[in-house]
Design goal:
By secondary structure, this protein is of the alpha+beta class. The protein has nine helices and ten strands. The strands form three sheets. It has a six-stranded antiparallel beta sheet, sandwiched between helices. Strands 1-2 form a two-stranded antiparallel sheet. It is elongated. InterPro entries: GAF-like_dom_sf (IPR029016), HTH_MetabolicPath_Reg (IPR050707), Tscrpt_reg_IclR_C (IPR014757), Tscrpt_reg_IclR_N (IPR005471), WH-like_DNA-bd_sf (IPR036388), WH_DNA-bd_sf (IPR036390).
């Protein structure tokens, strides 16, 4: 059986030390606390800083936990508590909108569908729980990109063009950024025939007690049902936003 990897154990120890502090810690304090040479400690800190798990204050030089660790903590919630807290609200949204409802979270630069409620009619439908969807071509994904400040830079890094699925998919990063800016202003996101021709989806972010977007909830259906021309019906938008706010309150988010 393979043995433990010392460098990973030391990195984990550094993260625990930083998590236990109420303020940033200096290199000397971290090194002394763990009884590690300063050179070794500095090398690990720089690696953790590179991947976003540690941040360094420009003025004091002290180290603290970075946004990457906070997002990992949020993702722990996603597949378990998020789905549990959202069940009733997702059912209610399906009833009000008369459309299918999906809840998604960010997973390896895609949207992972963690809950799916069928459209309340007699049509044949396929359960989508566990499906992975593109972030830039779905309303669920856009809601995550728009309201997670770290998600978009990571998603578009090293990409000059985004994959296209229909002639309406936003493949230019600048166009996507403009669309996400509108989503942030309005508090909701939409995609109109960007993933599948003839289909539309509307979504809004789900936040936790820190105000972090830990997921999104949305409806999906035919363009003739959900749109007036090429604009989503605002009544449907209000249903989605009401559901997102309700689930967010269940997770401890304040009023917003």
């Amino acid at each position: 059986m393979p043995g433990r990897i010392q460098s990973i154990e030391r990195a984990a120890a550094i993260l625990r030390v930083l998590a236990g502090g109420t303020r940033g810690l200096s290199l000397a304090e971290i090194s002394r606390s763990l009884e590690l040479p300063k050179g070794t400690t500095l090398g690990i800190l720089r690696t953790l800083q590179h991947v976003g798990f540690v941040e360094q204050d420009d003025e004091t030089g002290h180290y603290q936990l970075g946004g990457g660790v906070l997002r990992l903590g949020s993702r722990y919630l996603d597949g378990n508590e998020l789905r549990t807290r959202a069940l009733n609200w997702a059912d209610a949204l399906a009833g009000r909108s008369r459309e299918s409802v999906r809840i998604g979270t960010l997973h390896e630069q895609q949207v992972l569908v963690v809950h799916h409620v069928f459209r309340p009619d007699d049509s044949r439908q396929i359960l989508e729980v566990g499906s992975l969807l593109p972030l830039h071509a779905t309303a669920l994904g856009k809601a995550l990109l728009a309201f997670d400040p770290h998600a978009l830079p990571e998603y578009v890094r090293d990409q000059s063009e985004l994959p296209g699925f229909t002639k309406r998919t936003l493949t230019e990063v600048a166009d996507l950024e403009a669309d996400l800016s509108r989503a942030r202003i309005g508090g909701w996101a939409a995609e109109i025939e960007e993933l599948v021709e003839g289909e539309v989806s509307i979504a809004a972010p789900i936040r936790d007690r820190r105000g972090t977007a830990v997921g999104s909830i949305g409806i999906r259906g035919a363009i003739e049902r959900l749109c007036d021309g090429r604009k989503p019906h605002m009544e449907q938008v209000s249903y989605v936003r009401d559901a997102a706010r309700a689930i967010s309150r269940e997770l401890g988010a304040g009023p917003w």
